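User: structure tokens for this one?
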Amino acid sequence: MMTGSVPGVAVGLGFIIPAALAFAVIFLFLGRLALAAHRRPPVTGREALIGTEGEARDAITSDAPGYVRVRGELWRAISKTPVAPGQAIRVLDIHGLTLNVEPLMASTRQGESSSLP
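Assistant:
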């Protein structure tokens, strides 16, 4: 159609140029969105849970696992350092469906709560 070899059928430059520009703008916009999404930190999975803080629901030791609440979910957890029920924790690692956690220091937790209105 653009070569003019078909008699009576032609596409004018008045259509080709705006269509090409529109596709270029759409392609660049979608490419920019894809790059921005690629650079974002993960929000799900193993990478998103490590470093997240939560609260112990049960007493936890390395010998006796318990449950913790992290991001509104209950997870089975173990800890090298004993954790009391209700104590704030931080996720260190994940092994299957069991979290390896550590207790947060009381001074760190108090500093966070004192900054709240």
